[in-house]
Amino acid sequence: NLATMANSGATKGGFGPISQLAGMRGLMADPSGRIIPMPIRSNFREGLTAQEYFISTHGARKGLADTALRTADAGYLTRRLVDIAQDIIINEHDCGTMLGIWIRRKDDVAGQSMMSRLYGRLVAERVLDPKTGEVLAERDDALDHELSRKIAVAGVEEVKVRSALTCELTHGICSKCYGIDMARGTMVEMGSAVGIVAAQS
User: Fold this and answer.
1) Are 113 and 170 in the same domain?
2) 164 with 149: CB under 8 angstroms?
3) pTM above 0.70, yes or no
4) CA neighbor of 173 nearest in space, from 186, 162, 184, 182
5) What is the Cα–Cα distance from 58 to 29, expressed in whole angstroms?
6) At which of 64, 85, 106 does a domain end?
7) What is the pLDDT of residues 181-200, one digit of tens each?
8) Is the CB of residue 95 less than 8 Å from the CB of residue 104?
9) What is the DSSP string of 18-57?
């Protein structure tokens, strides 16, 4: 029945469209968002009067206009981002910097775990197990899923990693500061247009 369809998510919008089919359409908004004081008392099953139909077309017209404008805005934003970032290309294997950024367990970044924040980067300083002193990772080790999990489980509080923000190349960035190519799961290749990838993400 209709209730089962609404609860399962088969009807877009839940019980709203069902109430308009069997009950009444209710109050409509004009293109500026203001509520039109005359409610539509009919439903789609019984059919709308000519006046009610014209009142209800406000919402459809506004929806189409909003969709067209949003598409144009999104396209223009992408164009501007690509224009800014198109020069950021992987130009060298290693810039040799000793700088980096710290990934800390206590820093809650959008609810992401420490393991997910470590994945894809390269280690900037040796990582030691806080309990045993065992070396978990050396400088320039790639933090794949296995190594990221190992460091997170060991209880390490902070890890210094290479970052595109601290790369010392004059033009573009080096592959070690960029890290793993998320699309392939391997180290990023020379000449990759990582700036455009970031702009489109």
Assistant:
1) yes
2) no
3) no
4) 162
5) 7
6) 85
7) 988 889 999 999 999 999 98
8) no
9) HHHHHT--B--B-TTSPBPSS-B---TTT---HHHHHHHH
